[in-house]
Design goal:
single chain, mainly alpha, MetI-like, elongated, cell membrane, 11 helices, 79% helix
């Protein structure tokens, strides 16, 4: 309960602020309707109207919850959980690109980190480029990646995964470099006294020491990969995926649809990061680093 109660308190506060913010944001449309109808709105009528509009500027939680239920739970009960109307189907499409990009980004990040730690030239040349790569907005790079890959006949899952990889490799590089360099001079000197090779030093000292940094980097990389997959669906004109749902909602002013897709993306990210956290606790405990 010590862990659950603070989380529930914060969630309750967010929901309360959310409901309160919906009133002034949706009030102009309510007043406009009342003026055209020649009636005056009381405070209670205003609140009721702002919490029940079809296309509000800010949908309230119960509207978003109803939309999520209609596009997930209700369809599951009808045996159509993965129909093209279902958020589960769109989440799966985004998840597939997220995981492929995450795996590619993690592999690239580990390779770069190992090279940077063991090669002074790579440290001085590659590391600045790795950092500089993240200063360019991904929303500007994504269309170029899509166009270039389409020009050479590559479309579908891989272009979205490449965008996810671009975002996810950076935290892995930074975290692994920090982790591989975390052993202090005394530990490295001890390995030298044992006449350990560079490979043995890496396997028995640097790599185990980097694990806490590695798993923390994976959590950030997973969230970044999901963002990349969603962004990758925008310039492709995709008809499936959470990014496609956001795009369709923005075209037709369906703010409830937009917010339901956003919350589904947040839930997906929380589940994926939670899985990494569970693996981290098991792995570190087996290595003797857990509590």
């Amino acid at each position: 309960m010590r862990n659950v109660l603070p989380v529930l308190t914060v969630v309750a506060a967010i929901i309360a602020i959310w409901y309160a913010a919906a009133v002034p944001l949706n009030a102009p449309w309510a007043y406009d309707k009342a003026q055209r109808a020649g009636i005056e709105l009381s405070a209670a009528d205003l609140v009721a109207d702002t919490w029940a509009q079809d296309k509000p500027k800010l949908p309230v939680p119960h509207q978003v919850a109803a939309e999520i239920w209609d596009t997930t739970g209700a369809l599951v009960l009808k045996g159509r959980g993965f129909s093209k109307r279902s958020l589960l189907y769109h989440s799966w499409v985004t998840f597939s690109a997220t995981m492929l990009g995450f795996l590619l980004g993690t592999g690239l990040g580990i390779l770069l980190a190992v090279g940077i730690v063991h090669n002074r030239t790579m440290d001085r040349s590659v590391m600045p480029w790795v950092i500089a790569s993240q200063t360019v907005p991904i929303i500007a790079i994504a269309p170029m990646i899509i166009v270039v890959l389409n020009a050479v006949g590559i479309s579908g899952l891989l272009p979205k995964a490449m965008i996810s990889m671009y975002l996810s490799f950076f935290p892995v590089v930074v975290g692994m470099v920090k982790g591989l360099r975390s052993p202090d001079a005394m530990q490295l000197d001890q390995m030298r006294t044992w006449n350990a090779s560079r490979t043995q030093t890496f396997r028995y000292l640097r790599l185990p020491s980097s694990m806490p940094y590695f798993f923390t980097s994976l959590k950030i990389a997973m969230a970044a990969s999901l963002v990349g997959a969603i962004i990758g669906e925008l310039p492709t004109g995709a008809v499936a995926g959470l990014g496609a749902r956001l795009l369709a909602g923005s075209y037709y002013g369906q703010t409830v649809q937009i917010w339901s897709a956003l919350l589904m993306a947040a839930l997906l990210a929380a589940i994926l990061v939670g899985i990494i956290g569970a693996v981290q606790r098991v792995a570190l405990a087996r290595m003797g680093m857990g509590r």
